[in-house]
Write a structure and sequence with these properties.
This protein is globular. It has helices at 22-36, 47-53, 83-96, 134-138, 153-158, and strands at 59-62, 99-108, 111-113, 124-132, 144-151. The model has no long low-confidence stretch (mean pLDDT 78). By secondary structure, the chain is of the alpha+beta class. The protein has one domain (45-164): 3-Layer(aba) Sandwich (Rossmann fold). Strands 1, 2, 3, 4 and 5 form a 5-stranded mixed beta sheet that branches.
Length: 169
């Protein structure tokens, strides 16, 4: 979801996707809430504080702002996460045997977003074809977007739990 300068929901300028009717969105939110009830904990704090709470019994999904698309001039996103702090946090999770999934970078056409994550983290890198880039479409181009998903070493070794299996994997 994105919000405009007044804090109101802002549909993407990509007119190929018209969005969902508010009643449909409300139903989806309520169903999702019911599904996650008593199964998920949500925190609003610095990501490092939250990561201190997780154990090797948890599966953590990390979705920080992508590098290259979260600059200060782009107000759709809160801001860019410090690369070194992220790598340090991932290294700590690895040493603690925490299973995690990281959505972090990607590419559109010939442009690659983000500094590569260090090999020492031993992450399994998966690429997900996300379709035609809406920004590219607005600029009159026809580029495809590929997003990256990284699995922690322990998660890649164990495999995704059945309830976390993603289509196309």
């Amino acid at each position: 979801m994105r919000y405009n300068a007044e804090g109101h929901f802002n549909q993407s300028p990509d007119h190929r996707r018209r969005g969902a009717h508010p009643d449909t969105v409300a139903t989806q939110i309520l169903r999702t809430s019911k599904l996650l009830q008593n199964r998920v904990e949500i925190y609003h704090q610095d990501f490092r504080e939250t990561l201190e709470l997780v154990t090797s019994n948890d599966v953590v999904y990390l979705d920080p702002p992508y590098q290259g698309v979260s600059s200060q001039r782009d107000r759709r996103y809160r801001g860019q996460i410090n690369f070194t702090e992220l790598v340090t946090a991932l290294d700590k999770l690895n040493r603690r045997g925490v299973r995690y999934i990281l959505s972090y970078d990607g590419r559109t056409g010939g442009k690659i977003y983000g500094e590569p994550l260090p090999q020492k983290l031993e992450l399994s890198h998966l690429e997900i074809k996300a379709g035609r880039s809406s920004q590219s479409t607005l600029l009159g181009r026809n580029d495809s977007t590929v997003e990256s998903l990284y699995l922690s070493p322990i998660l890649a070794q164990q495999g995704l739990p059945l309830q976390l299996q993603l289509p196309g994997f």
